[in-house]
Amino acid sequence: MTPAGPPPGRLPDPDPDLASEPTADQATKDAMSSPTTDSPAHSASTASTLITNIAALVTNDPSLGDGSPLGLIQDAAVVIDGDRIAWTGDQSKAPATDNRVDAGGRAVIPGFVDSHSHLVFAGDRTAEFNARMSGRAYSAGGIRTTVAATRAATDEELEANLTRYLREALRQGTTTFETKSGYGLTVHDEARALRIAARHTDEVTYLGAHIVSPDHAEDPAAYVALVTGEMLDACAPHARWIDVFCEKGAFDGDQARAILTAGRARGLHPRIHANQLSYGPGVQLAVELDAASADHCTHLTDADVDALASGGTVATLLPGAEFSTRAEWPDARRLLDAGVTVALSTDCNPGSSFTSSVPFCVALAVRDMGMTPDEAVWAATAGGARALRRDDVGRLTPGAYADLALLDAPSHVHLAYRPGVPLVTGVWRRGVRVV
Questions:
Q1: Is 183 annotated in some ligand binding site?
Q2: CATH code 2.30.40.10 region(s) in the chain
């Protein structure tokens, strides 16, 4: 007699043995702190765990499985030992472990790597969004509205906002987080934003050059001097990266070069908001300075595409911004066909892309930017890791962090196939189940 299975169209519930793992609520709180600290919150269990009965395992290692960039393994298993991946392969060959989790015929992917977000802020810009979607002009301040609210907020309010959105993203499968300053635009407020971010996120970016501060509206040169001088001195100890919004109305190519060069001299690695609203020098400057990432990349010349293809700079595409502003979509197909490394991220911010959902961005990239589901999932995991110059996240291979997401679907393709559906049903971060 054939054993009874799940109803048609429904996968069986996972059967995790979580006796040695913390509760989901506690693990989620623990996961909000920086993994670089030595606090007990980051001490993964020393016991080993086998996750088996995986219908499709995305490893992002082309030497594994089907040989594609996703390194897809069917009928797979993965072993977690401490905070790292110890083994991946065919479930029939899985080694013995202390604990076992039955994935129930679901897909497992690396945790998403969100390499571009703006999460240290206060306030709300609902009225601006509503006016934009209604086709009405709105000139109440834009970024300056958020700057005013952020300056007025307490540290506790900013931290509560940040951790709220990090938890929201974690529940949707994001396990590595980059976030920026950029809504303070004073020495004090930029430094405190970075201090708060550094307590909770993996990668911290100094973005004093988001726009010219309203306090220096009549003297942009003085503001550039502040960003590259006193503000940089206060912010550099709390950040790994330096960023600039190189765009008409923000900072031109010469100003952007001066800002990024000054940051690099202080040990910060460059990245850049480039070519979002118009053609400009941002992409070429990113490649010239070996920036890890040029972000947005909506308006590109052939020379820009060639430069990205021949250099080490990742093109990070942010479809949430185009969706939220009804702007022109970046041409991901053009970039991929030219051999450019592409990442996908949320650009989560209160003005132009208020989403923390990488799965939503994956669906947009497939539907509107010319990417295949495989390409979009790779870009949102391994691509994000490349944009942060990391090789310990964004893949599920021995030695990498045990950051992974269990989908309530038999294939990663469902992330694009079923847009808007909350498919992430389990998340492990640094070897600990947090969702």
A1: yes
A2: 15-110+394-433
